[in-house]
Design brief:
single chain; alpha+beta; four-stranded antiparallel β-sheet; 4 strands; 38% helix; 10% strand; globular
């Protein structure tokens, strides 16, 4: 299972403080919706039809009992008592109040978790197979490589504002737009 080091902890706590300031500035009218949009997306926050949705990263899909208890607390305290696990090994809360998001991010940071780059046009959560590191027939444990990729891509300025769907028509051998039903 992935363990934060001092660098990770400092980075995540700094991001919580930055986003707390950004939310306060947005609510005070100092940031427009257009200015706030990329800031909230970089912190895993989407605006849905009726409420905000927060997506939490779960590297390699592995949680400690302390982390799972914190996720349950967040669900009870800030949502409707539950969250949704995604196919990308994240957890989503679908009924979040904007003013509470910095407190939620602080709860996550306190147990070595975050919502950084779980949304937006960036490299998302690095996942592995559910039995990575414990399968008897495994040729190699993919988690060290996944961790190297996670560290390399997290907050890397080259990968924070990627095109919505990366594609190259010429490499695909097609002249027209690619149809992607996984949107």
């Amino acid at each position: 299972m992935y363990r934060y080091d001092d660098y990770d902890r400092a980075l995540v706590h700094e991001r919580v403080a930055q986003f707390r300031d950004q939310v306060e500035r947005f609510q005070a009218g100092e940031l427009s919706e257009e200015e706030f949009l990329p800031l909230r997306l970089q912190n895993g926050l989407y605006m849905q039809k009726h409420a905000y949705m927060l997506r939490v990263a779960i590297p390699y899909g592995t949680l400690s009992s302390r982390q799972l208890r914190t996720l349950a607390h967040i669900a009870r305290e800030y949502d409707r008592g539950y969250g949704h696990f995604t196919t990308r090994q994240n957890l989503q809360y679908n009924w979040i109040e904007l003013h509470q998001v910095p407190d939620i991010l602080q709860h996550l940071a306190d147990v070595d978790m975050h919502a950084i780059q779980t949304s937006g046009n960036c490299v998302r959560n690095i996942t592995t197979e559910a039995f990575a590191g414990v399968a008897a027939d495994e040729l190699m444990d993919p988690r060290p490589l996944a961790e190297i990729l996670r560290q390399w891509s997290t907050i890397n300025p080259e990968f924070l504002f990627l095109p919505r769907k990366i594609q190259d028509r010429h490499l695909l051998g097609r002249a027209g737009p690619r149809r992607n039903h996984d949107a």
